[in-house]
Structure formats: C-alpha cells, structure tokens
Write a structure and sequence with these properties.
mainly alpha, 5 helices, 12% strand
Length: 112
C-alpha cells in the first residue's frame, strides 16, 4: 500500500514511475533500465534485501546513480552510513507530497 501511494504521489508530480516489490526486483529492474532511470527512491527496510545492500549493488553497477533514501528511522546510524557511501539524499517518513517534491528536485538538480 505504501508503495502504491508513493508511486501515485510521484505520478501526480509528473514523474514516470517503475516500482519494485523487493530489493532483488529493484536491482533487476535497474539493470534492465539503467539508461532511462534518473532517480531511485530507496526504502531502508524492504523484503529480501536491506536498503544498504540494494544501494551498494546499484552503485557497483552504475557509480553515478542518484538515490534518495527514505526511512522512518532517523538519519543517524545505517541511513547516515549509506549517505556517506554516496547516497544523494534522505527523506524522513512520514513525508507529504511537497516535501517529496522538494527532496527529489534537490537530488535531480545536484551536480554530480
């Protein structure tokens, strides 16, 4: 349900979305579509793989991938570690559509 609501928020902002039910599927989708994906919104907690594991796999495939990390936990701890490894941004749950829009824009507009 959270995945569906997030995708709908993104579509209402004018973004094309591809969703993945778990970390393994996210990696497979990215490998097949990496040339057309400009941003990944990655949750810290997912089925099959942690957000950190997925982030590392994405970065090893494409070092320039832009990832916005999303979590209900604070930026301290594991989220902070992922940001230090090159994650482009962080958004704390719960968030609204305005906050999501702002964070996405920051990540997309950042110079790599």
């Amino acid at each position: 349900m959270v995945l569906d609501v997030g995708a709908e928020m993104l579509r209402s902002l004018g973004y094309h979305t591809i969703t993945a039910a778990n970390g393994k599927e996210a990696i497979e989708i990215f490998h097949a579509n990496s040339q057309s994906i400009r941003l990944i919104i990655l949750d810290m907690i997912m089925p099959q793989m942690s957000g950190g594991e997925v982030f590392d796999a994405l970065k090893s495939h494409s070092p320039d991938v832009r990832v916005l990390l999303s979590s209900g936990y604070s930026i301290e701890g594991q989220a902070g570690e992922i940001l230090q490894r090159g994650c482009a941004g962080f958004i704390q749950k719960p968030f609204n559509i305005h906050q999501m829009s702002q964070e996405i824009r920051k990540v997309l507009d950042a110079v790599c």
